[in-house]
């Protein structure tokens, strides 16, 4: 039984693992056209049209290429946001868990405090703010950020917003794990042997808590992808013509009855990617937690 | 033929039999407003949705004719204009009463109050009162003393004096006189606007800002408000005391307005027979046009708005009029309206569309390169040749070295158009470097304002304009006059290329404002349009808007600039038969 | 227990104050103001001055914040700048109940489907039933609302004609006590599709959580004990296992509750439901500061309440947890 779970996991993990190099390195080769290349004579062509394997959208842009490039957007959102949240959350959580109870208390109070914040609203507000400020002839620090953002097709601020949203849960988990590991005998032993705090953290605590944290982060990835799609849907995501799946869907969902492929293809891509990450996360959790294994 | 007659007879008998049943049922029109109207207060409205519901409930001194939007009598039966066109005296009819509608039963009661000149004076002064804080108060600045009153401090001692000094007075109970700051032939159109309509003083004083809620509101138009369930629906019922029902000829007893934002949902409701008319979502247009049933129900009509790209005439490379003209020429307007906007829009060669007084729309004397051959223009092929020549002459052969930013506000529709035009430009000038940038609406408007530092302004930006009142003064003068208008293209008398043309343009629109002879005004405006869109090429007009509407076959409607439901009628039997 | 609740409420006060201040400052720092333009027309400075004075926007920013908080303490959230003549209270009073109805119904649906599905999957772990349930659950999480909603309208409303395409079955004037809808046929027929659209994702994630945590619980000692005592099958799992395994589910329900109740913006937009979801974005676009603050406050209060309820439910779900 365990094997079946592993196989399912492996297949779907593979999918996302294949998607990775595709999205980041190989894709520009796979995409046959540039994502912003328009052609009015060929607008709204169905899949299977010669030259446009998945058809074209309302401006005659190749859907295959746009979807492939969209993979890049979604996956970079997923990985950057996940990395940011993992690094920040883990650091914060481990420091809190490893420090004296007084420091721990203060740090966790701050986390509790943020936990009460309506983060989605803040993301919307922040995105509105970034989008407005970044274009009003910004100078100085904001100007530099704006340059970066522009170079990334409006993705940079999405990363920041998502990262800000998600480190809190990670910090809580990391702290809890650290606290429980801290009491174990081998830490006592290491301490008795005169190991420095830094060594204990890096040699003994981190390796022991990183598993559950990574699993949790993997499970959060579909959420990031969907949040990006949501932001793009309400016009606060990436800048057109950068092809994000969310943007592609929001541009075309009104055309669902007439040109269904324009909406369903990025929709399917979105669904399958989240699906793959969900299976990966579930599988990792099942694999890492011996108690969940089939008997 | 014979069977046809038999059928008609049968229908006649059936409808006679059904008559008592049908007569009891109210004729209800179901229409989607698309959004919650921000207000129903004539002093505060700025948007078309609010104006539409206000139009049903409040009469103006004048109204705009369906065919050409010329001012026609409404509350005023006649008027006199002083020789210098600074005094307008309106004589009002005496048979229009204020009515109140019971929110529970929908029963309309006639109040013992005739709509009179004092109500008009009150309405105008309330709009101008700084405490009302009306956005559109500035439209009335044409009145003598209006601007002083509107900018006064309500605490100031001379506040009442300033109020009394505004150029509006009730000569007697049914005569109202306006005194203007400067002559304005277009004041009759302004008199039709919502900001100049009579308002019920006693109700407003009793209920304050809540006076427009159902139950409180008192109105005088053909319909009155029974229900306003915010964000969900609004019900208006026929005002039987409105004196002109016979003339209007409609049979709608009740209007049920919904407020669904999504056009695709609205369209689905229309297909489900939940609505009698509907807009068409852009992607559905191809289908609707080819559908045997829906194509019969589709109407495309010109609508008095214009979509255009503006040039910042002080910012290289578009400081050179040759570059601006070349860019304007290289927009394939015909392909754009057929393949991108798809709503039957009309390629534009001037700023003001047809129906606006003084317009020169589609006149091939002006920017003929913008018009397709069938409209007497050059057609795109010839235009793009000329564009390439001009661009080379200006020092950018094939667009080499041409680099600028095209900006629009965030919106899917604008993005489509911008991407299409960018593609056209790159095809004509392949070596050019054209970037599209977008901004959120409020920020965008600030960015393209004429006092933004020139390094932050895009070279090319998009805007649209719709009429406040149907006169060229509201168009070329108010929007572009370098002295008195918004002048976002930053035209200047000191322009090294076209300074003297700008001066001429400015003089023309000022002169036309004062001129009273309609024929001469027309000529002045035509020349001004030619300067604006062709010689100076401060803007590239792109298309004139259209209304794209699906109407169920049982609905007979009219096409006023704002819907006049009192003239619409529904064939109830046909609707019953179709819905089943 | 009572002490605990009081402490939690006291703790909520600085949180809410901080949220309001942060929202206020952030909203005001977005360039552009509420009264710069009417449509595309720039308003003359004089008109703008009148508007600014009327809405006290000419005061220093900290005074404005203070005034708003002072009014908010008396449950007066100020006027809307965009919908003239409407107050934020008006807007909340009529949109919140509708969003809440949609949210609560979807959440109930999600629980009703999610918990049994998760339980079955866990009990029948590694059987085809489990795989199917898990797969469907994950599929449910993965389909975005903006795809599911239009799809359902198209199939069930336009093609099959089973349900109305849009809108909500009641309006705020027909509610009992300003909140409870009359449960008429009309209400349900309008509620069905949006409920499914919104509930699917939540039921799927609840199912997954239930399955995972039930699998853990099943292997705990006391379950073995129960089995050893001769209790069997479903009964054991439901009576002893499920209750404990619902703790992680309860944990996510708090934020989920606040999110779902205050409007799922997308579902409301697609189905044309007059809820408060659209105000989260529209108020920002319009720079309608009081509406931004009002909606944020409602959301935050719900979040606080949701988290409190969750913590209290721990005690019920697992008697070993005590608050003092």
Quaternary state reads: heterotrimer
CATH architecture of the largest domain in chain B: Roll
From the N-terminal CA to the C-terminal CA of chain A, the straight-line distance is 8 Å
Radius of gyration of chain B: 26 Å
Main β-sheet description of chain B = 7 strands, mixed
Shape of chain B: globular
Could you describe the largest sheet of chain A, including whether it forms a barrel?
Answer: none
- SSE-based structural type of chain B: alpha+beta
CATH level-four homologous superfamily name of the largest domain in chain B: Dipeptide-binding Protein, Domain 3
Q: What is the tally of helical segments of chain A?
A: 10
Describe it:
The complex is a heterotrimer of chains A (295), B (580) and C (324). Mean pLDDT of chain A is 70; it is low at 1-29. Chain A is elongated. Chain A has ten helices and no strands. Chain A is 74% helix and 0% strand. Chain B has 580 residues and is an alpha+beta fold. Chain B folds into two domains: 39-201, Dipeptide-binding Protein, domain 1, CATH 3.90.76.10; 302-546, Dipeptide-binding Protein, domain 3 (Roll), CATH 3.10.105. In chain B, the strands form six sheets. In chain B, strands 14, 15, 16, 17, 18, 19 and 20 form a seven-stranded mixed beta sheet that branches. Chain B has a four-stranded mixed beta sheet with strand order 1-13-12-11, with no helix packed on it. A four-stranded antiparallel beta sheet of chain B has the order 4-5-9-8, with helices on one face. In chain B, a hairpin with a 3-residue loop joins strand 11 (223-229) and strand 12. Chain C is built from twelve helices and two strands; from the N terminus they run αββααααααααααα. A two-stranded antiparallel sheet of chain C has the order 1-2. In chain C, helix 1 packs antiparallel against helix 12 (289-317), helix 4 crosses helix 7 and helix 4 runs parallel beside helix 12 (289-317). The radius of gyration of chain C is 24 Å and the shape is globular. The N and C termini of chain C lie close together (6 Å). The relative contact order of chain C is 0.15. The mean pLDDT of chain C is 80. The interface between A and B is medium-sized, with 28 and 33 residues.
